[in-house]
Amino acid sequence: MSLTLHYHPLSSFCWKALIGLYENDTPFTPLLVDLGDAASRQAFAEVWPLTKFPVLQDDARGEIVPESSVILDYLDLHYPGPAPFTPAGDAAWRTRLWDRVFDNYIHLPMQRIVADRLRPQGQKDAQGVADAQAQITRAYALVEAQTGGREWITGDTFGLADCAACPALYYGDRVAPLGSDHPGTAAYFERLKARASFARVLVEAEPYFKFFPA
């Protein structure tokens, strides 16, 4: 098997890559990286010196592919499935726009809030947390407006932006709950969770949820 995914089951950005791999039943070897273990970190650093996962290693083509969105682009190009993650034509930029909305305006602010929860007392950033929560709330409003009349975020086909939405909304809801103000987004989130690829990721992550700072 030529593809290896360097990942961790709790990592939100790893979920995005895993969902893509599972969507198309793409054969790959999962290699869990424990950044808290010196040997595991060093081995991963030899593959990708920035030590940020996920990273897809393709031995058949001699390629190291980091970054979740780039991994899905790479799979589209070299290991395509029944439907591309990013469609051709005018739909392509819309798909990438919503991929960026989920990553930059829900996913990353969520991670800032989680990081703050891990800080010791006396080093908390209350203003930073409030700003991140406000950013997520503004992004929820955009998603809410987009979900009307659509099964998936850009239309009738599940794709790159929906892969991004899965971890963004799952973890985002834990730090900035969707609530009753976003019924369309909540319904879209339920459709995502019912997707076999996402359901599988959640089952695999379940043993690690105890490490998520509630």
Can you give me a brief rundown of this structure?
The chain has 214 residues and is α+β, with helices and mostly antiparallel strands.
Give the key terms.
214 residues; alpha+beta; Glutaredoxin; Glutathione S-transferase Yfyf (Class Pi), Chain A, domain 2; 2 domains; four-stranded mixed sheet; 8 helices
Plain-language structure description:
The protein has 8 helices and 4 strands; from the N terminus they run E-H-E-H-E-E-H-H-H-H-H-H. It is of the alpha+beta class and 214 residues long. It folds into 2 domains: 76 residues, Glutaredoxin (3-Layer(aba) Sandwich); 105 residues, Glutathione S-transferase Yfyf (Class Pi), Chain A, domain 2 (Up-down Bundle). The protein has a 4-stranded mixed beta sheet with strand order 2-1-3-4, covered by helices on one side. Strand 3 and strand 4 form a beta hairpin. Helix 4 packs parallel to helix 6. It is globular. The model has no long low-confidence stretch (mean pLDDT 95).
Question: SSE layout and pairings?
Answer:
Blueprint: E1 3-7, H1 12-23, E2 29-32, H2 38-47, E3 55-58, E4 63-66, H3 68-78, H4 91-118, H5 126-147, H6 160-175, H7 183-194, H8 196-205
Helix pairs in contact: 1-3, 1-6, 1-8, 4-5, 4-6, 5-7
